[in-house]
């Protein structure tokens, strides 16, 4: 009996520490808006569907003659995801559901019939290129953003976070 009580205490302690270290993510779901709950019921994270990854892909696809809405693109990206990393990371903070990781973005582009060329110097972009540009803020590690070139000029991209904008990579799409 003492062994059982000991195991119960260890289990309760472990659950307590797990909940305390999980961050604010789980609490979001206690008061989430009904539209978010409905989309999760369908298997999708609404915040991702409305994020910059699907939006920039939609902008680029339009420039390449393909009219596909960001919402549709976001659903297709999530359908291709086998790791469900957004759900796991949302335990730390709900904003992680907005993420489209670069390998995931490239995989979606390949899946959509595009060739992707990665460049690490924004000056390599040329007139006629259509690309998804990844930038981040040097002020806040959480501020990352995708933008479509040439929908946005290089100067607009490089000042998105003001003087704190750092170019990371660009993914040039070709058919």
Give an overview in words:
The protein has 175 residues and is of the alpha+beta class. It has a domain at 52-81 and 100-174: Cysteine proteinases (Cathepsin B, Chain A). It has nine helices and four strands, in the order ααααααααβββαβ. The chain has helices at residues 2-21, 25-28, 34-41, 46-49, 52-63, 70-80, 85-89, 102-111, 154-158, and strands at residues 115-119, 131-137, 144-149, 165-174. The chain has a four-stranded antiparallel β-sheet. Strand 2 (131-137) and strand 3 (144-149) form a beta hairpin. The longest helix is centred in the N-terminal third of the chain and has 20 residues, at 2-21. It starts with a helix and ends with a strand. The mean pLDDT is 86.
Index terms:
175 residues, 4 strands, alpha+beta, Cathepsin B, Chain A, single chain, elongated, four-stranded antiparallel sheet
**Termini Cα gap:** 68 Å
Radius of gyration: 20 Å
* Topology order in helix (H) and strand (E) letters: HHHHHHHHEEEHE
Name the helicity range.
40-55%
- Give the strand content: 15-25%
Q: Looking at the structure, what is the overall shape?
A: elongated
Total helix count? 9
Give me the secondary-structure category: alpha+beta
Largest sheet: 4 strands, antiparallel
Instruction: Please give the CATH class of the domain at 52-81 and 100-174.
Output: Alpha Beta
Mean pLDDT, as a whole number? 86
Number of strands: 4
* CATH architecture descriptor name of the domain at 52-81 and 100-174: Alpha-Beta Complex
The poorly predicted ranges are none
Fold-level CATH name of the domain at 52-81 and 100-174: Cathepsin B, Chain A
Q: Strand order, biggest sheet?
A: 1-4-2-3
